[in-house]
Amino acid sequence: MVENFKMPWEERPAGCTDMMWRYSQNPVIGRYDIPTSNSIFNSAVVPFGDGFAGVFRCDNKAVQMNIFAGFSKDGIHWEIEHNPIQFKAGNTDMIESDYKYDPRVTWIEDRYWITWCNGYHGPTIGIGYTFDFKEFFQCENAFLPFNRNGVLFPQKINGKYAMLSRPSDNGHTPFGDIYISYSPDMKYWGEHRCVMKTAPFEDSAWQCTKIGAGSVPFLTDAGWLLFYHGVIQTCNGFRYSMGAAILDKDCPEKVLYRTQPYLLAPAAPYELQGDVPNVVFPCAALQDGKRVAVYYGAADTVVGMAFGYIDEIVDFVKSHSL
Ligand code: BMA
Fold this sequence. Notes:
Elements: E1 21-22, E2 37-48, E3 51-60, E4 65-72, E5 78-80, E6 87-89, E7 100-108, E8 111-119, E9 123-130, E10 136-138, E11 147-152, E12 161-167, E13 178-183, E14 190-196, E15 210-213, E16 218-220, E17 223-234, E18 237-247, E19 255-258, H1 269-272, E20 280-287, E21 291-298, E22 302-309, H2 310-319
Parallel strand pairs: 6-10
Antiparallel strand pairs: 1-22, 2-3, 3-4, 4-5, 7-8, 8-9, 9-10, 11-12, 12-13, 13-14, 15-17, 16-17, 17-18, 18-19, 20-21, 21-22
The chain binds beta-D-mannopyranose.
């Protein structure tokens, strides 16, 4: 539990019976919030200093994908740097990157670790770290191409760093399951295990085409709570929604529960309309032990927030599990 920070929060609207609800002022980040951007979405935030910091995916007007640092006092109003993050060499000199997108951030032990989808002969998982969100260091890529949605656990598990990821192809992958890998040093990754696969169409169609880890998991009494995205291929293209899973505390490749119904699916105008319609794509969650605020990319164009009570979500995941 993170203490002494002010959760961005808005109560459930009167009459709403949903487990999670959208912030009434969504989107919190607009597509043109920095001068060069075409879109700002799929971005990650963490408590930092007396406020918050984040790593933001800003595609520019040439539609080149890159990641940018940003800061906020309240977690809602953000100042994003106008220039992309420049990395120095971390645990390697090999810091090639054709593009960077879909960052996640988490504090582990003594620094903030960042993972993202790194262009190295196709998409794979890049890793970097920072202490202050000013100076950044890039490490070895975690995996061979192609891979997306690399999400670190916020603490070592049985003495090793642990990361979820989704092996994929070089295109708009028509498949995808969530795997876990372990590393003693953030450089060499192994012990790859399957965590969870897509659901059968007839059981839970919103997650029948592909799934991928979303926010950094956090511990609850029931285990690790992970928000993930699920995709269905419709006659009009992919549709991305958000569900949640609870993974075993000591052995997170063991899925204890996962939602059959989604928790959030494209329905608001900014989720239905944009560069890629019908996308809700969670990348971060702030929580204070009771409440959670999820940050998600909407329609590959803007950033939105959704709120919920952790106990209620955990009960829902347990009682509506696949
Ligand atoms: C994935 C990634 C995400 C994007 C999603 C929906 O392959 O490119 O960044 O949000 O597709 O377009």
